[in-house]
Amino acid sequence: MESLTNSRDSALRRRAEAVIPGGMWGHMSTRHLSPAYPQFFARAEGCRLWDVDGREYVDLMCSWGPNVLGHHHPAVEEATARQRGLGDAMNGPAEVLVELAELLVATIAHADWAMLQKNGTDATTACVTMARAGTGRRKILVARGSYHGAVPWCTPSLAGVTAEDRAHIIHFDYNDVASLEAAADEAGDDLAGIIVTAFRHDLARDQEMASVAFARRAREICTAADAALILDDVRAGFRIDLAGSWEPLGVRPDLSAFSKAIANGYPLAAVTGNDKFREAATKIYITGSFWYGAVAMAAAIATIETLRDIKAIAHMEAMGAMLRDGLSALAAKYGVSLRQTGPVQMPLVLFDDDADLHKGQLFCAGALRAGAYFHPKHNMFLSAAHQESDIARVLEAAEAGMIAVADSA
Ligand code: PMP
């Protein structure tokens, strides 16, 4: 695989190594990806990205979710420019706070109220704290392998985490009713809540939609125990159903956590809740220096209204179906067997007999060099900015990746 030793990207990586631990942290580190991946980007527009060496890509990650309308969407940029001209971080929130809370309550089916934060982890952690404050109990049921954020109660790395941080977490298997029931039995009369992602989107594993039986049982257990059903809609929110990702299943949570797509790339998260948890939400103390910034709130209002007005989810589904069909046709043409799982607008492509992801990395590196930014093991994201011509371009690039996989066999 090529390494970009004389590139601007590699020069930035070398400088970063000196002043940033490990050169880069978190989910955006390219350390586990093919060396063909750029670490640094210069510019983005719609669903296109340009790396610091000037290469252009059709983007299938959308900043790992946030850019649901595409970069620089005019409605969002106008709303944020207007609010920026008035004020952003002031001594108290602007009018847009109340407008956004009203919009969330009107849009999210289970919501009687909303509170805002910055990151998804803020929102999931707030939900867990509200569940405990509202019930006076401690145990939280969490699906094994589900991602809920990067703080001690839920971070995937155990470095720096104590057993006490996890003392009241009980695991179950996603979509497995018997294991959920066993976890609830173990919690007994100390059950504060169940937190669950909208669908199973664990890293490097086929995605699975939540089964109706599983979602209903989670609801029944929480209702019977007076505990909180928490939907972690950080990743799927605003891409499956604007009213909440479990609306199509007919199951309503007590608390939901949103972030990522809520403000088209501006930093914002939200917890929505029903009246049962209003008092708990009032009692707990959560805040942050930047949680009241008005610009991101203006962005969220424009984002949600635009998603609704342009029927963005139906568009993303159509583009996702075109991508999925096109990739299946390419796989058949080159005799490659792969699996495409989850909602079409949040695609994941995994290859058969590829435990070490060698084929996935080959495919992605080939597609990347030909101008499409895929990910080998994390679900990808489409946006309202993707048009048929962009998907056609992605499929051209994917053909290069598919040939690389076929040739390696
Ligand atoms: N929950 C889910 C399902 C997520 O996908 C993420 C982010 N990947 C989080 C929580 C945490 O969000 P953030 O990174 O904004 O803290």
Characterize the structure shown.
It contains 11 helices and 15 strands. The chain has helices at 8-19, 74-86, 95-107, 120-135, 177-187, 212-225, 278-283, 294-309, 312-333, 358-369, 388-408; strands spanning 41-45, 48-51, 56-59, 113-117, 139-143, 169-172, 191-197, 199-200, 208-209, 228-232, 255-258, 269-273, 338-341, 348-351, 372-373. The protein has a 7-stranded mixed beta sheet with strand order 4-12-11-10-7-5-6, with helices on both faces. A 4-stranded mixed beta sheet has the order 1-2-3-15. The chain is globular and about 60 Å long. The two termini are 17 Å apart. The mean pLDDT is 97. 4'-deoxy-4'-aminopyridoxal-5'-phosphate is lined by residues 119-121, 124, 147-149, 197, 232, 234-235, 259.
